[in-house]
Recover the amino acids of this structure.
């Protein structure tokens, strides 16, 4: 998947990590704690993603839907829509039912929506015409244990959004992510779905 990541030489990340750990010994600080966790991941050779930046700069399809999606890793489907008719914020909802608008849990991810990047024809569409459905790629056991998937998210390129859940098709090249803080995520794994795994994912015909 072609998205910008945050990387750093491990030895430099370890130096930054030590400075933040020393500071945290003196007093608690939420931002320092998040930075320490980020540098710890970088020191281990992992990459980070700024999800807001990823969605702010991603390409869109002809209906004004982003070519990427994110959902909690243990879910089966995700729904894309504009939030409350706004043109600056979108939501990716992986719940199985109706959630209150004030919901802030991991089943819904709110991302920036950059209307400047969509076509003129897409701008004229009603927000309901921009709704799309996609299948969440399955995560193989060699990437992550099934028990931790509820604590992770999957980011992937959407080849084609479906207008209805039952017509969704699986996509190929996901990232497994762990939320760090704000819009920052740690890339915990990356893989390509095999033809067999795509076929199994495509068997999700039921509407949950």
């Amino acid at each position: 998947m072609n998205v910008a990541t945050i990387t750093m030489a491990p030895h430099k990340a370890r130096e930054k990590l030590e400075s933040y750990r020393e500071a945290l010994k003196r007093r608690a600080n939420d931002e320092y704690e998040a930075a320490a966790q980020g540098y710890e991941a970088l020191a281990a050779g992992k990459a980070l993603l700024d999800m807001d930046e990823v969605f702010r700069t991603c390409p869109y399809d002809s209906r004004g839907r982003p070519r990427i999606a994110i959902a909690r890793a243990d879910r089966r489907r995700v729904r894309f829509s504009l939030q409350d008719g706004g043109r600056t914020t979108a939501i990716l909802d992986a719940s199985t039912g109706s959630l209150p608008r004030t919901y802030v849990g991991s089943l819904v991810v709110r991302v920036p929506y950059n209307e400047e990047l969509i076509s003129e024809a897409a701008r004229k569409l009603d927000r309901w015409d921009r709704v799309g459905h996609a299948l969440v790629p399955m995560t193989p056991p060699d990437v992550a244990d099934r028990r931790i998937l509820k604590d992770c998210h999957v980011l992937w390129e959407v080849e084609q959004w479906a207008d209805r859940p039952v017509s969704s098709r699986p996509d190929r090249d996901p990232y497994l992510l762990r939320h760090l803080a704000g819009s920052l995520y740690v890339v915990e794994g990356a893989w390509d779905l095999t033809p067999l795994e795509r076929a199994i994912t495509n068997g999700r015909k039921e509407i949950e």
Remarks:
- Strands lie at 48-50, 68-72, 77-82, 89-93, 108-112, 132-135, 153-157, 175-181, 184-190.
- The chain has two domains: 10-46, 50-178+189-201.
- The chain has five helices and nine strands.
- Residues 50-178+189-201 form one domain.
